[in-house]
Description:
The complex is a heterodimer.
Chain A: E1 20-29, E2 32-42, E3 47-51, H1 58-65, E4 73-78, E5 81-86, H2 96-102, E6 105-108, H3 120-130, H4 136-149, H5 165-177, E7 183-187, H6 195-211, E8 215-219, H7 223-229, E9 232-237, E10 240-245, H8 247-252, H9 257-267
Parallel strand pairs in A: 3-8, 3-9, 6-7, 7-8
Antiparallel strand pairs in A: 1-2, 1-4, 4-5, 9-10
Helix pairs in contact in A: 3-4, 3-5, 4-5, 5-6
Chain B: H1 5-46, H2 51-64, H3 67-77, H4 87-112, H5 116-124, H6 129-159, H7 171-182, H8 186-213
Keywords (chain B): Amino-acid transport, Cell membrane, Membrane, Transmembrane, Transmembrane helix, Transport
Transmembrane segments (chain B): 20-43, 50-69, 75-99, 161-179, 185-203
Family (chain B): Belongs to the binding-protein-dependent transport system permease family.
Amino acid sequence: xxxxxxxxxxxxxxxxxxxxxxxxxxxxxxxxxxxxxxxxxxxxxxxxxxxxxxxxxxxxxxxxxxxxxxxxxxxxxxxxxxxxxxxxxxxxxxxxxxxxxxxxxxxxxxxxxxxxxxxxxxxxxxxxxxxxxxxxxxxxxxxxxxxxxxxxxxxxxxxxxxxxxxxxxxxxxxxxxxxxxxxxxxxxxxxxxxxxxxxxxxxxxxxxxxxxxxxxxxxxxxxxxxxxxxxxxxxxxxxxxxxxxxxxxxxxxxxxxxxxxxxxxxxxx
Amino acid sequence: xxxxxxxxxxxxxxxxxxxxxxxxxxxxxxxxxxxxxxxxxxxxxxxxxxxxxxxxxxxxxxxxxxxxxxxxxxxxxxxxxxxxxxxxxxxxxxxxxxxxxxxxxxxxxxxxxxxxxxxxxxxxxxxxxxxxxxxxxxxxxxxxxxxxxxxxxxxxxxxxxxxxxxxxxxxxxxxxxxxxxxxxxxxxxxxxxxxxxxxxxxxxxxxxxxxxxxxxxx
Lengths: 269, 218
């Protein structure tokens, strides 16, 4: 099933330009430079995995895109629209423009962050009803469809505490899809899971990657999975994109020493 | 002085009337405290210039002064400035406002107890601020707060005796009045204490059960 068949994910005026662009973006935490004048683009429909050691700034990229963090400086565009335009010394605030652009983005969190007082179905219906103004019947129909897609039709009326981590993460993916984002962000989606539950979540993400034209940006430690589903892999270290290329090149023939040492360390076990 | 059974029996209807007034004060006062406390907690959290600091000062002021002083000021001083209500109304409002400051703190802890991931997920779904409060944050905060609010309700039930000082004819004032007119204090005060206990003990049992029911599950 293609969850996004009726959304114009690639069509439109923005198809020519990049779907996501970071133009000279920096992020400082006091003296700590998390991102250093980053320039980074993602094409519409592209599946990009971001790898690198912790503290390299890879999660910060996703969090700036989801407006959970503020860049210290720089321009971030999504689908041709400005999300952040921060001059040095500015203290940016949430704007109408930002809120409108943000709707094109969805995010799947490491800790799932489902609403624990709502059932799986209600979790998925909440934003379409409250934000898109969808009527409840329509939203429910779509939520059922999405739960089906992630293989959880039997868990519709379960609340998060009644579900395993893997099931919760699959509901979280369905919840993000319900808003028909053009860009879907995954922040280490399997890092909080017991090993035997990782597979079911990766299967759902793999199916999505293969069946939709959604742009996907994933921070992950699952190297084999990144190799399998990505069009491109970007290696981050110390707030910079060290190396970027097709998975075959990054994993089989990395050009940078830093990428080589990182991959040796993580692929050893 | 020896316990006089027939006298004790004869004053029970009067004491029950007083108890009923005490219960009414508690329920109305709790309603005011729960609503105003929620407003105070949310306003403080929103960090609005001027408004939030005023709310914070209000909470500090109320918590730092005795209920009895507040009741006296409201009943004896405010009328000098043209603000005057009957004793019952004044008592309910004073005790409601007094407890709202404590309940604001309870709500605050409940709101802060909601994981930051809930706010982040709400942002990621573009949920409007008001809906995030009403549908995501407060329902989760309430769960942890219910038993604590229950404890304050029981405390208010007992504290309402203080309002006898501003002539509210609740259970304590009734017992006192019976004592001063009959010169027998043993029966009315003992019975008043037993009536307080008869309500507060079962109520605390209910709160205990709520505590277990709303204990964090994960």
